[in-house]
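Lab notebook page, bench 4
Experiment: in silico fold of construct C2
Operator: M.H.
Input chain length: 144 residues
Purpose: comparison with the prior construct
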Amino acid sequence: MPRGWPKRIGLGLLAAFFVFMGVMHFVAPEGMVHAVPPWLPSAPLLVAVSGVFEILGGLGVLLPATRRLAGFGLIALLVAVYPANVHMALHDGPWTAQGMPAWALWARLPFQFLFIAWAWWATKPDAPGEEEAAAWPASSSVPR
């Protein structure tokens, strides 16, 4: 685990957020399926695949050996789903009919960049060599 409490809390919240959202892809996929732009094939499959990767990424950030790779994976996923957020803002009918204000759909767009920054910050090593040291038992890192 990282040394500082802010980073530990950030990692825990990042993991919880992505695991929760990934599970929601299977519990209530309808809204997410409608968010997939029509030019992409097989919206239900894309929602399921992104849900699996959200869960894997969320769990992966908790393990020192996979933290950095999981962070890069979550960043790639956030970039990949950005077109769905743009599609929702441009075609707001289904969401405004459910009571979501149109401004909220537009306000979501910059938050994607904050999520990217959060994943980057929370998963980057605190110090040079932290990734390597965290992946090995403490006894093996002691010089002989």
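Observations: Confidence is low (pLDDT under 50) at residues 132-144. The helical segments are 5-27, 30-35, 43-60, 67-90, 93-96, 102-123, 130-135.
Next step: discuss at group meeting.
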